[in-house]
Amino acid sequence: MHRRAAGSLLICALLLGAACSKPGEGVIALEGATLIDGSGGPPVTDALILVRDGKIEAVARVNEIEIPRGAERLNLVGKTIIPGLIDAHGHVERWAGPRYLARGVTAVRDFADHMDSALAIRGDFNLGAVLGPRIFSSGGMIDGEPATYSGGDAVATPDEARHAVDARAVAGADLIKVYTKITPELLRPLLDEAKTLRLPVAAHLGKTDALTAARAGIVSIEHMSGVVQAAARSPATYVRAHDMFLVGWTAEEGGWALLDSATIARTARALAATRVAIVPTLALHETLSHLTDASLLSRPWMSDVPADHAGIRDVAGFLARAGWQLPDFIAFRRSRPRQDQFVREFKRAGGLIAAGSDAANQLLVPGAALHEEMALLVAAGLTPIDAITAATRHGAQLLRLDSLGMVAPGKVADLVVLNANPASNIAATRDIMLVMVRGRILRPDSLRAAWKQ
Ligand SMILES: [Zn+2]
Question: By the 8 A CB rule, do 223 and 284 touch?
Fold first, then answer.
């Protein structure tokens, strides 16, 4: 560091009056904060982080390295820095871009419903035309027949399954998402094709149980789907229920409550041994189990949602479609401790858990919902540091991106500066002073002022 600075000064002197930039020009020095770097290790106090050209150039303790002259220096004593958050399960819409950033979410693993709009949004965010997080998108899902949603492809034969993967590779998808009606007979050729094209496959399972899918080679299980089928004594009822999406969801969500804890522990260990990752989306399970609670609509972060965006607030419409009655909600609530136990056992067995929110589904607000997810992971038994790792480095691992998810030399400069330390209280992740994305500093208040105009 020091030698390089001296060298460029020498070159300046030789050029005699030519416009020489100072060695620290364009460098941002973040000084004095406590650093939680995403590795899962303990917090480091008095950290010094140098950022240049959108990348992290150096991470040290204050006074360990020299801050180059001309650097923009930020005194962050008393603050805590964490990596930019990665939402491992989102359905990204254009309006959500600045909302994600204001809440510290700098990358999203996107399961958008339509390929064209997903890729357009990805391009606009990633190239900076619209302010938003980095997007990695599956495009529309691959489903069995009939497709659950219009944006997905329904496949009925192994050839069609392969073709659907090819079509996504050609369009430029970053990953593949398979949906509830995919059977094991369709999943195997689909995974074979995805392996050839080096595309990771994420699964919201229904007709295939979690162990079968994990052993066949899917990378992640979304919503802990298929676990009940893998654990239940008679999975056939669940598999049949998945002829209809909401019927399947209802049966499976209530089915957790019917499992005993020894079965859950055994299934969690068997799944962890396959190296599949789990994206639990506890915020989704928790929200759905309390969907009739009107107070959820008045939680403060609901104000992040634009007035004209009815979808997130449309609880009544969703309830009418789902047809859920009081006994369904009672079953869902009885399932929640079982789901938490599964998360705990899976983690204990060495399984990889990534935090995903499922925003912008009902009452799940882009950005804010990932903080709910981290808090619920802690409530399920993870430490705050583990929950932060799940929302940073583990998300990057799912995306197979080594340069994301950590505050370390050579990584991209996506990070969040917090006013309090979440190591003792996970709620501190919501108290954001500033967000850095692609090396650029953003203030949540300014973002809010801009989207309110
Ligand atoms: Zn989803």
Answer: yes
Q: Read off the tokens for 15.
A: 């050029």
Beta-carbon neighbours within 5 Å of ion ligand 1: 358
**pLDDT tens per residue, range 26-39:** 999 999 999 999 99
Rounded (10°) CA dihedral 228, 231, 237, 240: 60
Q: Is there a single domain that holds both residue 241 and residue 266?
A: yes
Strand duo 55-61 + 44-52: pairing: antiparallel
Phi, psi of 238, rounded to the nearest 5 degrees: -70, -45
Considering the entire predicted model, what is its pTM?
Answer: 0.94
Ligand 1: distance of its center to the CA of 421 in Å?
A: 30
In a shared domain, residues 77 and 158: no
Three-state secondary structure readout of 111-154: CCCCHHHHHHHHHHHHHCCCCCCEEEECCCCEECCCCCCCCCEE
How far does the centroid of ligand 1 lie from the alpha carbon of residue 111, in Å?
6
Domain-ending residue, one of 398, 424, 443? 398
Domain count for the chain: 2
Q: Domain limits at 359?
A: 83-398
Same domain, 215 and 201: yes
Tell me 301's DSSP state.
Answer: G
